[in-house]
Design a protein that fits this description.
The chain folds into two domains: 317 residues, 5-stranded Propeller (L-arginine/glycine Amidinotransferase, Chain A); 77 residues, Arginine deiminase (Pentein), CATH 1.10.3930. The chain starts with a strand and ends with a strand. It is 32% helix and 22% strand. The chain is globular. By secondary structure, it is α/β, with parallel strands linked by helices. It catalyses: L-arginine + H2O = L-citrulline + NH4(+).
Amino acid sequence: MSILYVGSEVGQLKRVLLNRPDRALVYLTPSNCNKLLFDDVFNIQKALKEYDIFVKTLLSVKGIKVFFLQNLLLETLEIDKAKEWLLNTQISNFRYGPVFSQNLRHYLKNMKNKELASILLGGLAYSELNIHSSSILPQINQSLDFVIEPLPNHMFIRDTSCWLYGGVSLNPMMKSSRKRETNHLRAIYRWHPMFSKQDFFTYFFDENINYDNVHIEGGDILVIGKGVVLVGISERTTPQGVESLAFNLFKNNQARELIAINLPKARSCMHLDTVMTHVSIDTFSIYPKVMHRDLDTWSFTPTLNGEVKIKKAENYIYAIEKALGLSSIQIITTGGDKYQAEREQWNDANNVLTVKPGLVISYEHNIYTNEKFDKAGIKVLTIPGNELGRGRGGTRCMSCPIERDSI
């Protein structure tokens, strides 16, 4: 079995991918933040300081190794075939037109790979572009317009790709401003030596396929262990995406059951992990205003003839208990009164990263929920997140485990 394996949400975390946002945040302004899926701009220095504390906290837990996306992308670009593919894919004729795309690819190909990696992740304005092109595109655009749009949401690296048992899903993203992210991970998983020499399953990996209405994002996928996957049908994940994932998992014998929960289609709960996370073997944190028992829930299981059986479940709590063989699960609800709980849910109180059973990393400003974790026997390592939280993502969103123990 490949050592690239994620057997649960709560087993000992061993290796994890992160993406320190750096350059992408520089371009985030009040006039473009909504288009780039942010509600507000950051204090960049404070945001990066908070991020570095997150990294330091992760590394303080014994047994965890951290890998950064920009470093992996740089090392991937050192491989000629990977660099050519990535430039042809990200700077395509259809995105820029045949004249300007050729000029831009030539310009980028000849720069140092470290700078290229930074630009692909962080963006490039026309004012920074030192090339001559007969294309009308640079003549029409203003100097502060983007040649390559920044990818500040790439910080929430879990959404772009996520590991489920012995395989990885290269997620077809819902929002156009995030679609380029997937190709960075696609290139890394295909060519980087840490991955290319390993044997693992891939889902939605073929860039030549138009996945159409199949959308799925990692924030909606919880690998709850024992061959079971929990998925939210949300603002960013479609029923077609859920069914396609279930079919692929079962075809490769990588899961024995998928449980799907129909969530409200709202930004406040854009992903399942904004209202529910797994914090210990038998314990989940939920925001009860959203995660009530009467949410439509379905159980997907494989049949002997290779088809998928879909059955309506009584409720998601019973479905989880049955799937994991537990007589009951412990539920920790968002802390405080209804006003405090709503604020803390908005500030990612339920989006915590479990690093081993009963040990989570959470934003320090979610004091009421963190107190409830503590009283329930869940130890909390807190980090500042007043700036990072402006992107509507917590510590789970900002991490992509690639090796984690089962339960």
